[in-house]
Amino acid sequence: AYTRDTNRQAEQLHRFISSHTDRVDLVVHRLVHGGDRVTGPAIVDDRVESDIERLALQAPLHNPAVAALIRTCRDELGKKTVQVVVPDTGFYADLPEVASNYALPGELCEQYQIRRYGFHGLAHQAMLQSWQESRPDLGNGGRVISLQLGAGCSVTAINRGIPVDTSMGFTPLEGLVMATRCGDVDAGILLYLQREAGYSIENLEHLLNHESGLLGLSGKSADMRNLLGCEEPAAKLAVDMYCYRARKYVGAYLSVLGGADVILFGGGVGQNSAFVRTQILAGMEWLGIELDHEKNAAIDGNEGRISTLESHTEIRVISVNESALMAREAAQVMAQLLKANG
User: 274 near 299, Cβ under 8 Å?
Assistant: First the structure.
């Protein structure tokens, strides 16, 4: 697990290795932001490490921790142990231009590599692969809307195995309401806070990443479990906005895809909260999306179909196994390395 306390991180790693194995051949890291250079699984070398650290400003909650853990693994296991990073952003490396660009001057975006990178790619890719395995009759899974709902939240539109749009953008801040992140916000608010309230860049970064979302709205908690059932108006508003924002994106992606063969729910909230799923899909019967309320309530953290038999779009709760996907991706990289070395 990633932590900002590098000493604690080193101790945890040492205890894990000591108790589980006396030999490690390969270490796999989830890399939240790979930018435009680390677009697929890659062996960690000086260039990759430099890219990870360069992107720390765009993923301040994650990339610095990954960089620190890479160094910790090297210190603990030695330089000869192969380390591989699998980027969350890689799934979205080929987003269509209309979905990957911002309406900003092209030269500026090119100079500073500003584009919509997308995040949570491993989670959405894992959900997609699980769905594809269950429905081989649909070409590459057909039209899929996948929702990864937890502390971080995102939604992706996938057309026959190819992502065509996603809610997170240049950083993991864009899109849905999250535990402590704001999601979509008018950029003019940030300019206003700088001018009128004297907010510094550091103040704004902390506000958007650590003080907003469910925590900021409720003034109570960043944990959906603590807010569900709470009678305080601010807590109710936080839950309502969380669901409403996701609902808007589902509607938008139904338009992008021309309908959907399936809507997938994953993540800690997506898999465990029947109420949240109900609120997101409420009133979509006119679109042919019909939730089976008994199945939805009974699934209780398991996997399965929660739509009615009459629903034109299937609705499923699905486990997100990012670790298995990362292991497969890294094993392929390792196999290629061994083949290249004879």
Answer: yes
The tens digit of pLDDT for each residue in 242-279 reads: 999 999 999 999 999 999 999 999 999 999 999 999 99
Q: Are 98 and 62 in contact (CB under 8 A)?
A: no
Instruction: Give the CATH number of domain 121-178+224-322; options: 1.20.1250.20, 3.90.226.10, 3.30.420.40, 3.40.50.720.
Output: 3.30.420.40
Catalytically annotated residues:
88
The answer to whether 293 and 278 are in contact (CB under 8 A) is: yes
303 Cβ contact partners less than 8 Å away, ≥ 6 residues apart: 271, 316, 317, 318, 319
The two structure tokens encoding residue 38: 């680390």
* Residue 83 DSSP SS3: strand
Residue with tokens 């057909």: 142
Please report which helix (H) or strand (E) contains residue 12, including its range.
Answer: helix 6-20
Q: Which of these CATH numbers, 3.40.30.10, 3.30.420.40, 3.30.430.20, 3.40.50.2000, describes 6-115+323-340?
A: 3.30.420.40
